[in-house]
Amino acid sequence: MRFDRLLAVVLAGNDKDPLILGGAGQPSKFFLPFVSGLVGQCILNALDGLGRCRCCYVAVPPDQIGAGCFATECPLYLVPQGPTHTGSMWNALREAEGRGHYAAGDHVLVISGDLPLLSSAALEGFITASERVRDADLYIAMVPFSAVPLDLRQAYRKDVLPFRGGPHLCSNVYLLRPDAVTKAGYARFERLMSIRRLDLTTFHGLLKITAAVVDVVGLWGLLPLIRVARRLGRPNIEEPEAHLQPLDWIERIALDLIEKRFGPRVSFVVPPEPSLALEFDRPEQLELLSAYAGHGSRSYRPRG
Questions:
Q1: Is 260 helix (H, G, I), strand (E, B) or coil?
Q2: What residue ranges of the chain have pLDDT lower than 50?
Q3: What region, left, alpha or beta, does residue 20 occupy, with left being phi > 0 and alpha being psi -120 to 50 degrees?
């Protein structure tokens, strides 16, 4: 499958958690300063240089609808965010459909609004990798932790997930066919989003996550979770070739659960593009990414 002339949807948003950046009462991450501009401008620069993006819709807080602080080559539309991540996405899709930019059955490039290191090359790498695997409704990138620059790894170690035998970070960029997800699937997704920052290595975090997983995917969903907990108890952070291993039986169970409980057929891709996953929730993460972009890497290129 080829993915050309994509509609991009960026979820700028405000998080409900006031303890993180972009939380309740704070400016959304998309509008925060980064190096000499804004986080959002870095994301839009990456889309401008992609060559596959027909237009971009950004779901923002209503008081930012008239913001004219972004320069883009790609047609840009700011739309009001919804009360949830999926609500924001559908607000953007309804407006895009009204302008003839979206139709049922299309794949959409969905991007979190807190990826200031995102580049055109990273997006191209993800999309190209997605074109090479089996057709799916949802393509998810799992980034090998070994691809993360050494001076950034410490800030993201708690986000590491075991995948195909080794440590990975889950991307915050997706290729999604939105109407493939059921209404119940979207509700279950939001339930999982509400626990995404809990610590799986603590008893309290594990208990709440277990309760949510049982509620969302049933008792069978505990099997992949148990494996994740066991792997996190003895992670091997330095395992550079682990991403070359095929899916094992427990991960196939997880894929089957996603399809049965959420709707979409999923394909995982493993591009070595860390900027797809380097989001920020805390001031120290944003400061670290800013220092890296400004001084720490000759390879950083805002436009890809």
A1: helix
A2: 232-245, 297-304
A3: beta
pLDDT at 232: 46
Judge whether 176 and 138 are in contact, CB under 8 Å.
yes
Residue 87 structure tokens: 């609500």
For the entire predicted model, the pTM comes to: 0.81
3-class state of residue 14 by DSSP: coil
* CB of 71 closer than 8 Å to CB of 62: no
Residue type at 196 in one-letter notation: R
Label the pairing between strands 266-269 and 6-11. unpaired
* 278 contact partners, CB below 8 Å, separation of at least 6: 115, 117, 148, 152, 156, 169, 289
Token duo for residue 34? 């980064």
Which region, left, alpha or beta, applies to residue 67 given φ > 0 means left and ψ of -120 to 50 means alpha?
Answer: beta
pLDDT at 20: 72
DSSP state, residue 296: I
